Amino acid sequence: MAGIVYLVGAGPGDPGLMTRRALELIAEADAVLYDRLIPPGALDGARPNAELRYVGKQPGAPALPQDEINALLVELARAGKTVVRLKGGDPFVFGRGGEEAEALAAAGVAFEIVPGVTAGIAASAYAGIPVTHRDAASAVAFVTGHEDPAKEDGALDWDALARFPGTLVLYMGVSSLGPIAERLVAAGRDPEEPAAVVERGTLPGQRTVRAPLAQIAERAAEAEVRPPAITVVGPVSGLHDTLAWLERRPLHGHTVAVTRARAQASELAGRLRALGADVVETPVIRIEPRPLDPGLAERIGDYSLVCLTSPNGARLLLEALPDARALAGVTVAAIGPGTAAELERRGIRPDVVPERAVAEALAEALVEVPVEGRRVLVARAGEAREVLPEALRERGADVNVAALYDTAAEPLGEAQREGLARASYVTFTSSSTVRFFLEAGGEVPSGARVVSIGPVTSATAREHGLSVDVEAERHDIGGLVAAILEDATP
Ligand code: SAH
Fold first, then answer.
1. Cα–Cα distance, 61 to 81 (Å, whole number)
2. C-alpha span between 424 and 445 (Å, rounded)
3. Which atom of ligand 1 is nearest to the CA of 97?
4. Which positions ≥6 away from 116 have C-beta within 8 Å?
5. pTM over 0.85
6. Which residues are bridge partners to 212 per DSSP?
């Protein structure tokens, strides 16, 4: 069967701005040829055996020449492959997608085009700059800033662009910004016209530099703006001052490392991202369920009290129960709000939840619950403190401790170490995350602040030589996020 090439736009960098079609095609492709400016994780959904090939510029090495890329696309398609040619932004906006499509057409290879969100529009939007506006801009021009405006025979008519009645969006050209701005002003564009440079638009660390056209290049240079960046020239650029939203989110500019197990990181990561943080997931721990004694689940109703000391324990115990009604006559205690939430998600509202999520507080909260001579189950991790079982035994309870899972070390990969090195906050949600972090050779970068979910985790961190800068007042994910927020915002 003949192959096909999809020329696909991957959007400007925020993975959330990839189209559904792009994700579908990446998941189906036999081969993906991609450039540098594609969103992080864009290829995560590719088939494990897909050929993933970088064809963009490498530092120190030339990019694969365009004709070789064209030839490669044709060759792969002729070999019957489904090929995705993935480009940053939109494939037809300064992406050389037009040339690639022409080469495919000339070779008689089937192709389709999947547009993407182009950087000129997306970076502007994320900077609070509407490229058109009823009062301020009725037209918008996408301009390549690649070309030296001094070049006599350049493809761009700078005089016409100076007169263009609308917004100019300049792609590329961080270094040529000075000559371009001068050229526009020389040709009659108002030197006082607002302009903005948006660096790393839609990506973590996005920055916007605002100045009048005549000064924009100097300001961008002072701020050490680096590619990728776009420049927006026109009155709409001034709206950044009122409409900037992303750069005003409270955790914008902060990189937060999340060390908890991958399976559990999403809630914390999601909340932090919603506040504007750049989240690096650096899981150092993995949950390994233990085979559960089948009798335990069947006879759960024999217990008068069941204590759950972690969300994982709650999840694993309830998953093992044939029916939640087995707990009908049992008093259920959760160590804290996170564990309680896990139970509630599965239809069980715990009877006892202490305010502070530590074993001591749970033991204290249980003083009202009669346990003497009764059977009590403490369901927890393989490795845990004995505080709760001991306190219950002292009160005459017949305590059975069920270890439902073990926590195992997850090594830190290279990408994670790199992410960690950028972190301004490193979060620990349990003592075991602290221990495994250090075992994995994790290092808190200098200047970064250590955040702990509560006093037990903090104590473990201190025992291991870490100084704890921020400790959550409420010992759950919400409390942790609130503590970072309070620390980060004056
Ligand atoms: N096809 C792409 C553009 C490719 S040219 C698109 O439609 O967006 C590469 C230029 O795009 C960069 O030099 C820069 O000017 C711009 N660009 C790409 N990603 C960007 C980003 N995240 N923020 C700002 N500019 C970006």
1. 28
2. 8
3. 1
4. 8, 9, 10, 11, 18, 19, 22, 87, 88, 89, 90, 91
5. no
6. 194
DSSP string covering 16-35, please?
A: GGS-HHHHHHHHH-SEEEE-
Query: Ligand 1 centre and the CA of 216: distance in Å?
Result: 19
**Diameter over CA atoms, the chain:** 96
Measured from the Cα of 91, ligand 1's closest atom is 1
Q: Which residue type, as a one-letter code, is found at position 198?
A: V
CA 92 to ligand 1: nearest atom: 1
Marked catalytic residue, from 81, 87, 90, 172:
172
Q: What percent of the chain has pLDDT over 90?
A: 79
469 pLDDT higher than 80: yes
Distance (angstroms) between ligand 1 centre and the Cα of 5 equals 22
- The token pair that represents 179 in the structure block: 């000559």
pLDDT one-digit tens code per residue, 287-297 = 899 988 888 88
255-258/425-428 β-pairing: parallel
Query: What letter does residue 91 receive in the DSSP assignment?
Result: T
Annotation says 35 is catalytic: yes
DSSP string covering 92-154, please? TSSSSHHHHHHHHHHTT-EEEEE----HHHHHHHHTT--SSBTTTBS-EEEEE--S-TT-TT-
Whether residue 67 lies in the annotated active site: no
Enter the tokens of residue 13: 């960098």
Residues having CB closer than 6 A to ligand 1 are: 12-13, 37, 87-90, 93-95, 118-119, 123, 171-172, 198, 200-203, 227-230
